[in-house]
């Protein structure tokens, strides 16, 4: 998947004659964007999947919703901006975890790319 995504990004840059692109992504797409981006690219993610010992690209900006377990390992990184969770906690752990990872959580945030 990463190879296909990387080739698609290279082809798009070549087709449109650009060197630096802005990549925006959610969850696993955020991790993929981090891997395929070039040095001059801007990467903005929401609730990016993280790995133990994984690093974020310099200049990237990672937004995460408090309570999101997918991006938990990145919660203290210098480029992570923790957003408040707009969902009411139900006490059902599975439900609350899924709600915390929902892209709808940024609906009323003033985020600009």
Query: Into which percentage range does the β-strand content fall?
Result: 15-25%
Query: End-to-end span in angstroms?
Result: 25 Å
Structural class: alpha/beta
Rounded mean pLDDT score: 90
**What is the H/E order?**
HEHEEEH
Q: What gyration radius follows from the Cα positions, in whole Å?
A: 15 Å
Note the main sheet: 4 strands, parallel
**Judging from the principal axes of the Cα atoms, what is the shape?**
elongated
Proportion of helical residues? 25-40%
Strand order, largest beta sheet: 1-2-3-4
How many alpha or pi helices? 3
Task: State the low-pLDDT regions, or none.
Answer: none
Tally of discrete structural domains: 1
Kindly state the number of beta strands: 4
Describe the overall structure.
- The protein has 113 residues and is an alpha/beta fold.
- It is 28% helix and 17% strand.
- The protein has helices at residues 2-16, 28-36, 93-100, and strands at 22-26, 42-46, 61-65, 80-83.
- Helix 1 (2-16) crosses helix 2.
- The protein starts with a helix and ends in a 13-residue tail after the last helix.
Quick summary:
The chain is of the alpha/beta class and 113 residues long.
List the helices and strands and how they pair.
Layout: H1 2-16, E1 22-26, H2 28-36, E2 42-46, E3 61-65, E4 80-83, H3 93-100
Parallel strand pairs: 1-2, 2-3, 3-4
Helix pairs in contact: 1-2
Q: Features of this protein?
A:
113 residues, alpha/beta, 4 strands, 17% strand
